[in-house]
């Protein structure tokens, strides 16, 4: 993976970032709710971007590499699906199951990486 110099170094003694950014389809539901206003909540001072955000994004990428589609967008869905609908699926839905030919241990790992951490 390459970050093209876009990554940020954590401040001394902190394990989180207060900056919220990233590609929408790779953000976890707890950040999407705040950024898009789906939850009806305003961004909170205490809402921080931790390492869990990176674990979620890597889980999405692993799923895509194996299944050839985003875990919240099935192959049979048309390309006309809106970004809002995808955000709704990420926030309110569950990821699709990986194909059965993958080992259960791999499926459990990716499912754990895509667990929703609503705080």
From TrEMBL:
Keyword Endoplasmic reticulum: no
Keywords attached to this entry: ATP-binding, Kinase, Nucleotide-binding, Transferase
Entry annotated with the keyword 4Fe-4S: no
GO MF: ATP binding; protein serine/threonine kinase activity
Enzyme class: transferase
Pfam family, one: Pkinase
Entry superkingdom: Eukaryota
Protein kinase domain boundaries: 1-119
EC number: 2.7.11.1
Name this polypeptide is given: non-specific serine/threonine protein kinase
């Amino acid at each position: 993976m390459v970050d093209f110099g876009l990554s940020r170094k954590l401040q001394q003694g902190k394990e989180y970032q207060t900056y919220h950014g990233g590609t929408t389809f790779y953000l976890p539901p707890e950040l999407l709710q705040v950024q898009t206003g789906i939850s009806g909540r305003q961004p909170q001072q205490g809402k921080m971007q931790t390492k869990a955000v990176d674990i979620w994004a890597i889980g999405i990428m692993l799923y895509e590499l194996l299944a050839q589609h985003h875990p919240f967008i099935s192959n049979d869905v048309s390309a006309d699906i809106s970004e809002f609908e995808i955000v709704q699926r990420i926030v309110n839905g569950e990821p699709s199951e990986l194909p059965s030919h993958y080992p259960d241990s791999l499926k459990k790992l990716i499912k754990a990486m895509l667990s929703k951490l609503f705080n």
